[in-house]
Amino acid sequence: MAALKKEYHINKNDFIRAGEASIGVKNVLKSLDVDPSIIRRVAICGYEGEMNVVMHGGTGKLNIEINSTNIVLDISDNGPGMANTELAMERGYSTATDEYREMGFGAGMGLPNMEKNSDEFKIDSAVGKGTRIRMVFSLTHSKE
Amino acid sequence: MKLKEIIELLDGNLLTGKDQLDKSLNTGGASDLMSDILAGLSEKCVLLTGLTTVQTVRTAIIAGVGAIVFVRGKIPPTEVIDQARANEIPLLSTPYSMFVSCGRLYSKGITGLDGAQ
Ligand SMILES: Nc1ncnc2c1ncn2[C@@H]1O[C@H](COP(=O)(O)OP(=O)(O)O)[C@@H](O)[C@H]1O
Ligand SMILES: [Mg+2]
Fold it and tell me: How confident is the model at residue A1 (pLDDT cuts 50, 70, 90)?
């Protein structure tokens, strides 16, 4: 499979379009005949990450790179960042507002679910600088 | 169970998915929390929810949900129905509550997402 790269822009508070990048990624992977169970894991990670940028982050982007051995999903934003990423990774931890909860988000399950569904997960965040999450999905030996 | 049987059981109003009446749905999940759906074995399930936003349909697309049932007679906005149609996810609206809808499906053999009865 030839290497393929794609970039999608994400805007803070843009709930009208939130999720479209991940649906785009899902369709790209489908057209490349990637294993459906891997597509589902990538799409879930992309969507949770995209929603985090929309709700908690700032202006951001989602980058996907597909080569013959793996898929790399890189989601970054220039929002407020996090003081304590370990705390943010805890199941159930959330700073989501009531408005977000009414839309079905804010369960504090996004980051743990992204870690669970990816083969490699790395989060970098600093207050005032923004957040970057890089996830790798193996196309040769997957964990699920 | 086929989609058409679910429509009958729930006195449902099919909003989109006429061409998928024979689609098979054997597991069910009920939630208003999108992360629950994304973290669960929600592929090909019937999702019961009271949440009619576009994010419900996008979550279903991402998770591979088989069909969505909106409880308590709720009907999503047109653009939400359009997105489901474009992604071939049947939508139906039932007059029953979440509790009664789940009970009706459960009593006819729909299991939990993990197959639990
Ligand atoms: N991109 C981001 N920028 C700033 N804070 C974030 C970002 N992503 C996540 N967080 C913080 O981490 C918390 C946990 O995230 P997550 O597990 O996805 O749960 P939820 O989004 O439901 O709150 C969020 O409530 C927020 O405080
Ligand atoms: Mg989240």
Answer: low
